[in-house]
Amino acid sequence: MAAVIHVVGARPNFMKMAPLIRALRDAPGGFEHLLVHTGQHYDEHLNDAIFRDLELAAPDVHLGSGSGSHAEQTARIMVAFEALVRDRAPQLVVVAGDVNSTLACSIVAAKANVPVAHLEAGLRSGDWAMPEEINRVVTDRLSQLHLTPSADADANLLREGASPQGIVRVGNCMIDSLLRNRERAQRGPALSHFGLRAGNFGLVTLHRPSNVDDPGRLRHFLRVLSDLAARLPLVFPVHPRTRARIAALEISEAALSAAGLQLAPPLGYLDFLQLESAAAIVVTDSGGVQEETTALGVPCLTVRDNTERPITVTHGTNPLVGSDPAPPPVGDQDETIPVELAGVTRFITRSQIRYAQAQGDYARLHTPAGSHLVRIPLSTLEERWAAAGFVRIHRSTLVSLRHVKEVRMEHGRCSVVLDEVELQVSRRHTRELRDRLLRPNRPAE
Ligand code: UDP
After folding, report:
1. What's the pLDDT at 441?
2. How remote is the CA of residue 12 from the centroid of ligand 1, in Å?
3. Taking the CB of residue 200, how many other CB atoms lie within 10 A of it?
C-alpha cells in the first residue's frame, strides 16, 4: 500500500515537487510513497533531462497519457489514475501547480474520498480565459491541505472560504529547487555552448497558448524579438508547442538566427538556470520563470496582461508588458497594476489613475475610488508611462493628462486641476507641462 502518491505531469511540476519528495524521503521513520508521472509532457527535453538535473528518482508509475485536447488529456489521465487509486488505496494524493494532471488527479482522488494536498495552492490571476486558472481554482476547492507559497495565496483561499486550518504556508518550492541547484548550474557548459558572455544577452521563453497559437500574433512576436536581437543577442529555448507553431509559419530558423535570435531545443534545468542567472534580461510568459528571475534579481519582462504571481511585480523584477507584442499606441496602453488592500491583492488599471505621488521608495496611486500604495518607485512609473500621457509636475508627483480638467497660471505659479483636486506644479516642471500640453504627441499629418 502506498501511503502517499505524488503526482507530476509536466515540466514545472518537477521543480516544485522535488524538495517535497526529498523532505519526505529524509523524514525520520520515512514515508511510503509512490511517484506517479501522468505522461502529460512526454518530450525527452521536458522530462528525462529535468529529472536527471533535479536528481529525482525515475517515476514509479507512468500513466502514459500523452497529448490531446484539454478534455481528451484530462479524461485519459482520470481513467488511468482512477485504476491506480483503486489498486493502491493511498492515504493522501499530493498534486502540484496548475496543469491538467493537477486537475485530473484531484478530481479522481476527491471522488475516491482520498484527501488531496495541493502544492502551490491559492495563486490566482483572475483570468478565466487561462486553462491554468480553472485548474487552480477547481483543485483548491477539492483539496484539504493547501500548501501555499505566499501571503497573497493565503488571502485568496480565505476569501474563497477555505478553512484556515487547511492552509500551510510552506514557501516557494520552485525557489527551493533553484537555491539548491544554483551553484551547480554555474559550473555548467551552457554559456560557452551558446558563445555568450554573462550580462550580454537576453533569454526568451514563450509557450502560453494565448501567445503562440494565433499565427499573426506569433509572427509579430518573432518580428519584435528579431528587432530586439539586433541590439542584444537573444537565446530562445523553444517549447515543443511553440516549435510546432513556428514550423507552421514557415519562417526559417536560419533567418531568425541571422537576425541574432538563436532558437534551441528546451534546455535542461541546470543549463537553463545558468543562462537565466547570467542574462541581462529575460522575456517570458512562464509562471515559474517570473518567480526565478525575481529570486535571482534578473530583470524580466512578462508578456502577459495579468499574473497569478503579483509578488514578482510588487517585490520583484517583473513588470508585465502585456501580451500585445506591438509597441503600445501613444496614450492607449492600459497596464494593470497589482495593489495590496488589507492583505488582498487587487488590480487597478492605469487609466483609472489620476496621479501618483512618491511615498518613500514607493508610489501612492490616486484613483477616483481611493488611493493605493504600490511597491514601484515613481521614477520607474515615469519611464513606463511617459508615452501614455503621464507627466511629472513635481519631484514627487506624476499626473495623468487624461484626468487634467484645467491648467491654471496665477502670479507665475502653475497648477493643474483634476476633478476636485488641485495640485501645484513646481517651477522646474512648469515648462515641461506647458510643452506637453501645447505640443501633444500627435502623429505627423
Ligand atoms: N525551464 C527549463 N528549461 C527551459 C525553460 C524552462 O528547465 O528551456 C524551467 C525553468 O527554470 C522553470 C520551469 O522550467 O523552473 C518553468 O516551466 P514552464 O515555463 O514550462 O511552466 P510554467 O512555470 O509556465 O507553468
Report:
1. 42
2. 6
3. 12
